[in-house]
Amino acid sequence: MGTAKSAAERMKIVVGIDFSEMSDRALLVAVNMARSAGLAEVHLVHVLPPPVGGTEFAPIVDVGEQTLIARKQMAAMIDGMGVVTEIIPFSHVVVGNAQKELPRVADEVEADLIVLGTHGRRGVDRMLFGSVAEHVVRTAPCSVLTVRAKPPTAASTIEAPCAECVAVAAKTEGKELRCSTHAKHHPRAHTYSEIPPSFGLGSMTFRF
Q1: Half-sphere exposure of 185 (CA within 13 A, CB side)
Q2: pLDDT for res 51
Q3: Which of the four pLDDT bands, split at 50, 70 and 90, describes residue 205?
Q4: What does the alpha-carbon distance between residue 202 and residue 208 come to, in Å, rounded to a whole number?
Q5: For 60, which DSSP code?
Q6: What whole-number percentage of the chain has pLDDT above 90?
Q7: What is the pLDDT of residues 142-196, one digit of tens each?
């Protein structure tokens, strides 16, 4: 008997693709999960909005042309995945509403999982635009995994040292640590420590 899994045994993952950075992240997550599964189908799905009545200022979009462009982009994404023996890729370009078409395609291919990138809209944005992921979660025939952007880490928010300060410190062998700009006194003193620790309320508080 062969060791290859039959189509019924393969894990099948549908990935929503809108050619944004978040859908790139979703595809990466799906590919990693597919590799872990041993053998899996990864279905990339891009949904084109249906054409609406055109005007002289906004003519009807050529869906056929948009479909060809999307298929080329999908082919490039699949090529970018490289040759992965554990993954069988498929691409789907459909016309309609994303929150309806993604569950439909997932049902059609008997998917085990849908992976979506989400921008995590909140408040007014969510009220006005809704969330494709939220609708897909409610109507999907399988589990749904949403991939969100990583929040900035503490390290990424720390400012790099001033190049001029570094140069001054090196030139003076550490006797001076600040450049002319950063050596200036702030108009309002900073409180680094207090003795006693009375939050600046005591008359005998020393700040240094």
Answers
A1: 3
A2: 78
A3: very low
A4: 15
A5: P
A6: 38
A7: 999 998 877 666 655 666 667 788 888 888 888 887 888 777 755 544 444 445 5
**Which residues fall within 8 angstroms of residue 166, CB to CB, at 6 or more apart?**
none
What residues have CB less than 8 Å from 74, skipping those under 6 apart? 17, 44, 46, 91, 93
Spell out the CATH class of 11-148.
Answer: alpha beta
Closest-CA residue to 11 (of 147, 139, 143):
143
Domains of the chain: which residue ranges? 11-148, 159-208
* Sequence-ordered list of residues with C-beta below 8 angstroms from that of 40, at least 6 positions apart, any chain: 10, 11, 12, 13, 33, 34, 86, 87, 88
**Burial classification of residue 100, based on how many CB atoms lie within 10 Å of its CB (0-12 exposed, 13-18 middle, 19 or more buried):** middle
Query: For residues 140 and 24, what is the distance between their CA atoms, to the nearest angstrom?
Result: 21
Q: Which two tokens stand for residue 28?
A: 């990466």
**Alpha-carbon gap, residue 167 to 161, rounded angstroms:** 11
Nearest to 116 by CA among 94, 101, 95, 96: 101
Confidence band for 54, pLDDT divided at 50, 70 and 90: low
